Amino acid sequence: MRTKTIRFGIIGLGLMGREIASAVARWCHLEEPDFLPELVAICDNAPPPGRVEWFRAHFPGLRQVATDYRELIANPEIDALYCAVPHHLHAELYTAIIQGGKHLLGEKPFGIDLPANTAILATLREEPDLIVRCSSEFPFFPAVQRIFSLVETGAFGRIIEVGTGFLHSSDLDPHKPINWKRLVRTNGEYGAMGDLGMHACHVPFRVGWTPRSVRAVLSKIVAQRPDGRGGTVPCETWDNATLLCEAEDRAGARFPWLLKTHRIAPGQKNTWYLEISGTKASVRFSTKNPKRLELLMYAGGEQAWQELDLGYGGTAFKGITGDIFEFGFVDSIQQMVAAFFYEVAHGRPLRPSAGCVRPEETALSHRLFTAALRSQANGTTELV
Question: I need a labelling partner for 250 at 20 to 30 A (CA). Which of 215, 224, 225, 264 fits?
Answer without folding.
Answer: 215
